[in-house]
Each structure stands twice: as structure tokens, then as C-alpha cells.
Amino acid sequence: MDFGPFLLLALMEGLVTAAVLALTASGLSLVFGIMRVVNVAHGAFFMLGAVLAWFVSQWVPGPPALSFAVALVLCPLIVGAIAAAADTAVLKRLNYEPEATIVATIGLLYILEQAALSFFGPDARPVPAPLNFRIQLPWFGYSGYKLAVVAAAALVLLAVWLILRHTRAGLIMRATQIDRDTARAFGINVDRVYAGVFAMGAGLAAIAAVLIVPIQQAHYLMGGDPLLLSFIVVIIGGLGSLRGTLVAALVIGLSDGVISTFFAPTLAKIVATLAVALILVLRPQGLFGKRAA
């Protein structure tokens, strides 16, 4: 196969990575943008979505498409509920102080990982894909499910944008983001908004995990790479900027696909980390972030 088809394959793989990364990083960016909380447990919520998807695939009878559809609806709801409970029980009591919430979410990360280890076990376990067809290109065949992942991620991200920009709930979130004290003075229940935002961010990570787990495998330590790459994407795109997150996810995902195909996956992570260092030196607020006053 010539260089061109290899490049096309690398770009298609990178697009899948970018789609899943955009979903995961959007949840992290949303939580920081509105709550000013650096959620170190975000990768654990990703992992929890994948592990729950495996449990659903074992418990729901019928074809894989049915269990996958149930997992795609049920797992984000469960993970979101856990996140909302954690926000109410822990982060709210810390008054969302930046240093305290970082330590608290680190603790939450370890609690969720150890809980998954206890109930799920240390082994990686596969989840059957709901679609098994392949698209035949002139040079190679490609998984139709991977393209479906890209389409599904795009639809979810569009729904998130519509919610934030064109609904009353989105208006309340943005008002709370600008000034939570003023929002509280106007009768907005800021605590409920924060719990909802934290749940929404975790739910986005869980959706990403459910989509990717048929391609990868569920494992109790699988949240590390998504957490690292999500932080890289959010820093490059700009903390709290959804547009910047999407652009950075596309750049990092495509570069990861190309570098991993032609060189090595480790080199892709090194390049992404160097890109973060360069952004922090030249433009600390990120590509689309606002400079602090």
C-alpha cells in the first residue's frame, strides 16, 4: 500500500480519537468553565462509564445492539448521579476552593478506581460492538462502527452546544459562570446548578467511554490516558472555552493518529505534552481562552 492510503487510514483513526477526546475534554472544560473546579477524577468517571457498559452488556439479554443502546442511556445517567452526589457531599462542603477541590477529586479518583477493582476485577474485558459492518474503500476496509462513533460524538456535542446557547438551563449556567454571587442574589440555586454541571461533565465522559469501549476494552485503570489528553486539550484550547476544546481535540486527535501510525504512540504523547509547554509559554490562556484581567 502506498503512502497516501496509509495517511488516509491514520487520519481516519485520528478522527475517531478526536471525536472521543472532544466529548471527554468538553466535560472537563464545562466543569472548569462554570464551576472553576479542576476535576482530577474526570478520568475515573470515564473509566466508570466503560466498566458499567461491560456490566450492562452481560446483564441485558438479546443482540449486542440492544445492550449497547441500554448502556448508552443508562451508564451516563448512573455516572452523572454519582458525580452529583460527590459534588453535594464533598465539593459543596469545601465551598469549591480550588486547592481543596483538587485534593478532593484526587481522593475521589482513587476511591472510584479501587471500587472498580473490587467489583470488576483487574482484567481487561471486551464489550461487543453494536455494528459489525465494514466500509470497503479502494485500498482497505474500515470499521463502520468507528465512523458511527464519530457521528454520534458530533451529535452529542451539537446537543451540548444547543443546550448551552439556546435553552433556559444554558442561560442559567452561563449566568452562574459569570458571577455566582449575583446569580444567587437573583434567586438562582447555584448549588443545584453546580451539581448539574458536575453531573453533565461526568456524563459526557461516560458517553465517550461507552462509545469507545467496543473498540478498546474495559479496564479499571483505563481513565489515565483520557484524563491526561483531556487536560492537554483543555489547556491548548483555553480553559472554559468549548470552541477551543473542540479545535484542540481535533488537532491532538489527528496528530495522534498520524504519529502513532508512522512512528510510535509514545511519541504522540510526547509531542502533545511539548505543545502544552509551548502554549503555556507563548499564550498561557490557550488558543481561545480569555486573558485574566
From TrEMBL:
TM segment ranges: 6-25, 37-56, 68-90, 102-122, 142-164, 193-215, 227-254, 261-282
What keywords does the record list, in alphabetical order? Amino-acid transport, Cell membrane, Membrane, Transmembrane, Transmembrane helix, Transport
| Localization of this protein | Cell membrane
- Principal localisation: membrane
Name the Pfam families for this protein: BPD_transp_2
Superkingdom of origin: Bacteria
Topology in the membrane?
Multi-pass membrane protein
Question: What family name appears in the similarity comment?
Answer: Belongs to the binding-protein-dependent transport system permease family. LivHM subfamily.
Q: What is this protein called?
A: Branched-chain amino acid ABC transporter permease
